[in-house]
Predict the 3D structure of the following.
Amino acid sequence: MQLRRTVAFLGVAGVIALVWLVVPPLSGQQRTPTGPQFPSAYRAARAADGHPDLNGLWQAFVTANWDLEDHEAQPGPHSELTGAYGAGPAGQSIVEGGEIPYKPDALAKKKANFENRLKVDVSNDKTWHDLGDPEMKCYMPGVPRATYMPFPFQIVQGTSPYILMAYEFTGATRIIRMDWKQAAPTDAWMGWSRGRWDGDTLVVDVTGQREETWFDRAGNYHSDALHVVERYTPVSPHHMTYEATIEDPKVFTRPWKISFPLYRRMEKNLQLLEFKCVPFTEELLFGKFRKEAAR
Amino acid sequence: MRHRLCSSITLLAVVIAVGLVAPAAGQGPSTTGPKKYNAPKTPWGDPDLQGVWNDATSTPLQRPANVGEKDVLSAEEAEEFQKSLAHDLTRDRRDGGNAADVNRAYNEHWMDARRLKITADKRTSLIVDPVDGRIPVLATVPPDRQKVRAARAEGAARFAAGLPDNYTDMSWPVRCVVRTDVPPYLPTIYNNNFQIFQSPGYVVIGPEMIHSARIIPVDGRPHLHKGLRQWLGDTRGHWEGSTLVVETTNFRADEGVLFQNANPATFTITERFTRVAPDAVNYEFTVADPTTWSKPWTALIPWNKVDPGEQMFEYACHEDNFDIVHFLTGARVREKNGETVGQQRPARAGEER
């Protein structure tokens, strides 16, 4: 009896040992704590310009537009009227290391931005941009925010020295000027983008962005010294890795980095639709200036 | 820069309020007769339209009465025609006293100089059909359309008098909802650039004003379902030889978006883009609306290639639309001063009456 049990135990142990040896250990899959990994040797299909073909509609599925850093679920601005509509989902930081390295004064401004994110006062040209999240006012979002807003964007890559990125949100567009070396001739809401290929990665250097854009609804912001370097790396026919290094010595103690995947939108005949949000903002911005009798 | 932009909004508002966008400059190749030019092709076989193009010209959309029935001018006549149009359009002139001169100089700065030249083929109108070069306006506008127009006219009159009740009295371009990105594309006083991008299955037109991209599938896919409408419609393209033929449908029902307040429910438009030289594209459009025009009409506008060194700039509009607040706060002050809509006030700086 005792012997038989022992033999049975050894038999089971032997089977376990065999499985242990034959089946790849679980710990091997845990080497990538951030999730599944794409084969590193992926070689993207080529576009007409001989470089990786980035043409298509793409979208991020992170919640960074609410907050680049870790954030809990939150009610919408007027939940007493709208319930769960407009509420923000929880999300994990897309910032390398978790936190944005603000200078102390700048962190205070970020917090003030958040407190004032729903306020608007356009009665004075000089203080026009002082209050409110630019997204709420339907202003072009700038880079990198345009990339992780909850809207698709389309890349148009032909043979000219320009790659177009067209975003659904407020129809914002930016022209990636390939191998262009000039300084930004003036500031623009979507900045001035210089592109180059680093192997299979499209590297885009962005300067000349208007200082008024924000990074998210949490009030994360930058100054007129913002310098963004983006990297778009195809990792499968349907995915790209997006990375952006953000540098702004007036606001941050050091450059910092965000990264997340971009997903190809696969629906048949999908197209970018209009999101002309200006009419959604006019009453908020301009309603108070109407004629008294017309109120 | 911002201030200039906003003043430009004011001026464009006035121009659009007049109903006919002031035509501007540009030289194209001869647009008459068959073309032998073989347009270059993209590696995937589509005619190559990529580049930055400018449609400015002083040739008016409609043939002016003083040229009679002449559709194409001789070299001498053309020179005189161009000179006369340029005199009316330019602000770089000294007559009228110092104040007028300064006002004009202020505005001239951001005007498109290309708008002072007639088309290279010396036509007297951009309209090529009907042959009289005039828009075939409808003699009797249907009552429901008259009503729509009258309603819009009230707000427009308040705005023109400097007394808008509300932002809703202003036109869509003034409100930065749409601008010269609504087809058909017509030359105006500035920002006449269009950048064309192509990739397999797509042609994309980026009008400078506003910044949106008109993404045109050329892969044979169907239009959106009728119920899904957009401010700029839904556009599909196909190739006929070397010509890109573009059909746009699904316009929203908002009034005042389309040219001459055409009816979105009955308006149709076909546009044709043909590369006719290394540095020129012919842009031809045919529009029809039986509740606005007695028959369809067609215009041909040369698009001229812009030096690649001359960049497209971002045209932001709503982001710094200070004017909308200035108009409204100004109107509230005028009300307090007892001004009313019928009362004529002096012209303001840069304003064309």
User: Anything to note?
Assistant: The first helix of chain A runs from residue 2 to 22. Chain A touches chain B through 50 residues (CB under 8 Å). Residues 263 and 270 of chain A are 14 Å apart (CA to CA). DSSP finds six helices and nine strands in chain A.
